[in-house]
# Entry
Amino acid sequence: MDAVKVSPHPATVRTRWGVRKRATATAIGVVAAALLVGGLILLLLLQKALVVSTETLTRLQAEDVIARIAEQDLDEAARYVRSSARPGQYVQIIDPNGSVFAASVPATAATPITTLRPHAKQTLFQHVSGVNSLFDDELFVVATGVGEDEKVYTVAVAATVQVQSETVATVAWFMLGAAPLLLAGVGVGVWILAGRSLRQVERIRGQVAGINAQRLDSRVEVPQTSDEIQALALTMNMMLDRLQASDREQRRFVSDASHELRSPLATLSAGVEIAAADSSGAMWEEMKEVLAGETARMRYLVEDLLTLAKTNDGGLNLDMADVDLDDVLDEEVRRLRSMTSHKIEARLEPARVTGDVRRLSQAIRNVLDNAVRHAESQINIQVRNSADGILLTIDNDGPPVPIAERERIFERFVRLDESRSRESGGSGLGLAITSAIMSAHGGRILSREAPGGGCRFELAFPGQMKSTAKDQPQQLTLLQGPGSPPAQGGRG
# Structure
């Protein structure tokens, strides 16, 4: 059999280069590249500046000697040449025969420093290497022709370029020696700064790693640094807040669901045991209706719990289509007539929304059943169209929901009157399911006080009425009670 390679556990895998090393290496590499490019550019610019400076000084010196000859004479210019000697610069006046008439340095008094012989007012340039010159240095020579007594003399000025080379070499060696120190400083600085930042990240990681299901109330220490690390810690704490709230909600949901299921299960268990103990079967005949009712109640409760679970997981499948909301209400009003003695007044305008007709019917039925349980004698239903959508209001003449409870009423297993039995008060899931269905359709449900007193629920749908020739907007008033005619909707 082939050997099976087992991958190491992710927690034991260590990267060769961590963030700290990568940051330090990247910083050193970037600075080294910048130093290399910047150094080369600096040396080239420095060399060019030195060359231009040398050429400028050489030309100025030649022009100064030429001015002396033009303004005075050759002898005065010769005296000026001998008295104006400068280090690294050599000046000669060469006669038409090629002999040195005057020189700034005695070493150049016998041999011309250049072979250039320009015409009058002509300037020539020449680079003379140390091998071909009187000196070991490379020279830059400027030769200008000067006419005097119908003869052409040559004024030659030479400057050594050794100073330029030495200056560029000195700067290069300085940069080469300072670069490692600078790179070392950058590396140490980035290493320290990255280490400090990562220590905070590691502290946050360690604190989060120690938080489990039993310690969801723990929070990460937030450093007062006003940077990304502080933002990370705040984000982690907000995530932990959401996890704790979700865990608390899940635990409460499981506890409430277990509590709600315990009663019908206990009734079924006791009924089965009692019926089984009666060999005559008479007890079964007495208990079967009770057991059937408890079975139906548990089935409805499980279906409601499944619906809420699907809405939480985003798995509530909606069969979207155009729905005549007034027709849905017409059917529900007919149903209410058969099950209650309350007076029901319905004002329905033709209204069409996009949604799942089965889920919308379920949401409306839950609100209507709630109204039936709390109404004293009358229920009012109204559908209105507007530019913003469709508003369905369901009023009953019972007490309104207290202001402080008008949001909590849509949570699971909420019963404002804890003294009511579950048989008369429901499971506490109907309004929660309605709120979830409305949210899935992009709508909302609110609890308010009716204008004339009493309890009101508003269901707002994000749609608008679509009228046809058959369905023109109209308002119908339905007064229903026991024995009244069937309710008619806008399209019924």
